[in-house]
Amino acid sequence: MERAGPVLALILLIAGTALYEYFTVPPDDRAFLTARNFANILGQWSFVGIVAIGMTFVIILGGIDLSVGSMVALAGGVSIYALNAAAEKWPPGVAIAVAIVAGLAIGPLMGLINGIAIAKGRLAPFVATLGTLAIFRSLVVAPAEGSEIRSQVASFAKVGGVGVPIPFLGPDGGFLNVRVTVLIFLGCAIAAHLILSRTVFGRRIYAIGDNHRAARYAGIPIERVTIAVYTIAGFTCGLAGLFNASRLNSVSSSSLGLFYELDAIAAVVIGGTRLQGGSGRIWGTVIGVLIMGVVSNMLNMLGVSNFYHGLVKGVIIMAAVLVQRPAQAD
After folding, report:
1. By CB distance 3.0 to 4.6 Å, which of 131, 251, 252, 307 could disulfide with 76?
2. pTM for the full model?
3. What is the largest CA-CA distance in the chain?
4. Range(s) of the domain holding residue 100
5. What is the domain count for the chain?
6. What is the rounded distance in angstroms from the CA atom of residue 114 to the CA atom of residue 97?
């Protein structure tokens, strides 16, 4: 049940939403059980999903990262600033390449700072990442004075906004355009699964999260593994920030990535990863992201105000932790 629980929850959620639509919506207006709707759900939640992949590493290690939303915002802002600066000297193609490199480089750097503060500075993960949450957000808000950072290269929007045609899923068996970020999310999930399940590094992450003292006695380089894990989390935030900035061709310095930490932690916990560390699976996190997406889709279908979505997410997190309590007690 610990492994199958998230899948069963997703199936029940989809079935319940489909039944509600069946009895309340005219046949011609029903759209929930369509490939297009689920592609839209994945597209909207793929950014949170990419961040949640990195968060899974952190939580399995026994840590937490509250700065992921701020890292997404700063990575997006840095990529736009680098794009605009490069566009003044070089052609658009070169400027876009510079923006991609800048966005992907700043993410691991921010994660490295978190990892060093925790591993070398001996700060509690909650305290360290709470501090960098404020620092990273200020670094993107202050230069923009809280306003929007706009791209000067229109073609930059193609990087994150391009759709990939998938055959046989569209209307009448035709092509269905799926956002490239969905494929990146799934690619990150596959890579993360292989790292956690097939490498020595992955086994060390589980060992540290399960029993920190025993891992130290076993000779595992805890500091290096901790720094590497938070650097991976930073990389996923850089990836999400870059593609978010590209999709919108701008960055809202004060709101981009806001509450991503809540959504990412919720997806990881719903997927079966224990907050105490030492146990969890990447594919559980993927299911958790889908559950969060379907819940959001269902709330929109019911006409529930966006102001209440946070309440629902909070209840889901608490319920997921309560369900885990018997396993944690063992």
Report:
1. 251
2. 0.93
3. 64
4. 5-325
5. 1
6. 27
